[in-house]
Description:
Blueprint: H1 2-6, H2 12-15, H3 29-32, H4 34-52, E1 61-66, H5 72-84, H6 86-90, E2 92-97, H7 101-110, E3 118-121, E4 132-139, E5 148-153, E6 158-167, E7 170-175, H8 198-208, E8 217-220, H9 222-234, E9 235-247, E10 263-266, E11 269-271, E12 282-284, E13 287-288, H10 289-298, E14 302-308, H11 309-322, H12 324-327, H13 332-342, H14 347-350, E15 351-358
Parallel strand pairs: 1-2, 1-4, 2-3, 4-9, 9-13
Antiparallel strand pairs: 5-6, 5-8, 6-7, 9-15, 10-11, 10-12, 14-15
Helix pairs in contact: 4-5, 4-11, 9-10
Bound molecules: S-adenosylmethionine.
The site of S-adenosylmethionine (SAM) has 17 residues, from helix 3.
Amino acid sequence: xxxxxxxxxxxxxxxxxxxxxxxxxxxxxxxxxxxxxxxxxxxxxxxxxxxxxxxxxxxxxxxxxxxxxxxxxxxxxxxxxxxxxxxxxxxxxxxxxxxxxxxxxxxxxxxxxxxxxxxxxxxxxxxxxxxxxxxxxxxxxxxxxxxxxxxxxxxxxxxxxxxxxxxxxxxxxxxxxxxxxxxxxxxxxxxxxxxxxxxxxxxxxxxxxxxxxxxxxxxxxxxxxxxxxxxxxxxxxxxxxxxxxxxxxxxxxxxxxxxxxxxxxxxxxxxxxxxxxxxxxxxxxxxxxxxxxxxxxxxxxxxxxxxxxxxxxxxxxxxxxxxxxxxxxxxxxxxxxxxxxxxxxxxxxxxxxxxxxxx
Length: 359
Ligand SMILES: C[S@@+](CC[C@H](N)C(=O)[O-])C[C@H]1O[C@@H](n2cnc3c(N)ncnc32)[C@H](O)[C@@H]1O
């Protein structure tokens, strides 16, 4: 998955900027239109006002985005903040965490007008030691991290990890001799139940294990958890938030998904064969939000919100509409975009917002 998506030459996300949106393979909230970024900017400004109440020296504040792709969200946020919050604008910086030189170039092209405000970093380790005072944000990033794919073996009562190998001119799944060290916590099969206290987990596992079908598949994304922990450790004061689709509760043993949640998309269609045409189709898996939230809490953050995108964005929009002088006119176009972002049949039903903060 890592190679198929991120190989510097052949990786899916390295080919072309327009894989997101109508011309591409899938929609994200960013591709719905400017409203997503505008509401995000409005919420960010409210949070910055809280920080600024204790920032009389007007120290710089940052928005840090990761997974910025072609820079579209950054542009929507920056345009809104420049136009509507000039005082805040003066001491605001926009940082982008971007390991790919090619994507940095796409972002640089789009954000040329904001050049003095925007700074790029390869990875969390490259940030100034002072860290981040402000907001760290990622939309649909964690679902794009590589996952380990594990299948339940009823005969042995253990999880087996699926790897990928070549055969007959193509790629095929193959069971690995042992679990990768990154997922060894699953050596205790009950660990698949997620964060619970030990006795609760044991009781639940005794009830569930006999019912778990042979070959039942789950995914684990340790790199997503490491990423969140690294982000949390750089946040000195402020908020860390992400929007994505995934499990909100701790249990990733979803009876409705016996084949797991790893999916491939091309031209807005689900592609059955995950291993077909690597580098030309997106690969994505559900985010385990409970595990991500726990990782943040272990790094000292407080969970402010773990809820449907629709609920969170409805509240932001309500406040935005009550302050028309700042938010501008609520046009028909904004209404249409708002419905797409929040209606349960569109993005509102499937997406979750996780917001954590460090006081
Ligand atoms: C599903 S796309 C979402 C793009 C955009 N945020 C949106 O919502 O339209 C995921 C993006 O995250 C990028 N990405 C993956 N791993 C990353 C990492 N470690 N740091 C920064 N970006 C990453 C991918 O290259 C891709 O551009």
